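Running this now, will post back.
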Amino acid sequence: MRRRPVNLIALSGDPSNPMDDNDEVAIRLADLKAQHEELDDVIARVVEGGPFNQLTLQRLKKRKLALKDQIQRLESRLLPDIIA
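Update: finished.
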């Protein structure tokens, strides 16, 4: 599974390129979404490819679910709470 590179220059704290917490969260969120999508593709290929190891598939799905949970936590940090 390949990961997208994170913009390290933007995260370096360079004063000419100030980033706030939301920018860092958005970058991390994009990275997690890319990983989730890639993992979804890997799972689909494993299932379509014929005989497969159930334990491997279970681990891939567990990792995908963990990524989804992280994505939801970060998305909730970006969206303000709405008081009804």
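Residues 7-12 have pLDDT under 50 and may be disordered. More later if anyone needs it.
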